[in-house]
Amino acid sequence: MKMKSISVSLMGVMVTFGLLTGCSQQNTKKEASASPAVTNAQTAATKELTGELEIQYFVGGYGDAWWKQSIDEFQKLNPKLKITQTAGPQINEQMKPRWIQGNPPDLMFINGAGSNARQMFIDNQLMDLTDWLKDAKNADGEKILDVLFSKPEEYQPGKTYTLPLVFGSYGTFYDKAELRKNGWDEPKDWPSFMDTMQKVKDSGKMAPYIHTGVYPQYIIGGLLNSAIVAANGSDPAIINKINALETGVFKSEPVMKALDKLIELNTKGFIEGSSAALNHTDSQMQFLQHKAAFIPNGLWIENEMKKDIPAGFEFGFIPSVVQDKAGKSIVIPSTATMGIAKKAKNPDAAKAYLQYVFTKKQALAWAELTGSVLNVKADLSKADKVSALVKQASTYFASSDVIIAPIPVLPEELFKIEKDATLALVTGKINKEEWAKRLEDGAAKQREKNK
To answer: Against a cut of 0.90, is the pTM above it?
Structure first.
């Protein structure tokens, strides 16, 4: 799945959620059929909803089953509301002309290829949700802000323009069964990770590590960003400094130490040789076929590759491998957000749909239908239809021994610079000083634009 547009340079698990997700679903634009209201069910809205509501969502690694189900349920609760679903794997690019022309849909799932939540804020396309969200309650009567794993990103102090829907996480993935079979230890920190990778290399059975070279955001979210936090004394505040484009942050000591870990992977020969040329599905397929032991990725990988997972494969997951021995694991969120268009024609209905879906019921449905985690605190441990990987991840998220970092978000132009520089670094084409210079120069240009 091409990463949700999430960065730092991260994500954005998932996210921006960087979150580009390549998949095969056909584009769809259809109206949810109106049907009688569900008996005794109450809509989250405080008044009867009428008119039209258009929802745009990207169809990628999370699929579209949850969207169809939740929108159909919401439609039944609001029979006088005409809902249009505008969706597909290329929908963000297809809808750009309408956003530019000032005729956007009411509500957008800001995820996938061609989307960037921060850029939409910069372009003045999103509605200010600050006042509404302060007291907004979900369909169960709970304050939405109280049930979130990850709070909304503030693109300017004290202001909220988006609401994270997905709480994914980047991390390192492996096959538990394969590690057991070969007597290789599951990684717990950087020393144990390096030790296991050396054993994999020495065995000659497979490459220790593979990544999605065409989409460097995976290794940024899955390794670099958590390494930056770890090198900052496990203080995630450095992500806020990166998001704020503070002068000098990209050449600061924590960032430079984190880059050393990427360089170490390359100099020790741990990276599978073809990685730089591989896209997301090709690298994921090689990983599933045991051509590599570890891959940096997001929690969507299981759902996205479910048709290709071999029998006996047992997903293992750790949010970060970069911490010192006995250090806390670091979660780099890969979120994908919801935003209401500033020029929405039916903002009341858009808000009511958000109130409907930010519930424990929808968190369970999302986990069952997408194989990932909704940004709502819910106990998934006893859910029969939820995969072991999702349960394992949700246990990490709820643990006091895990550090959850802020969502890394860079402007689209700077994020591209980071991706290009990171790929050049892990292939040995540039050194870390050149990486830092590219990012500092790009950040300076962005600060100038924002004046």
So the answer is: no
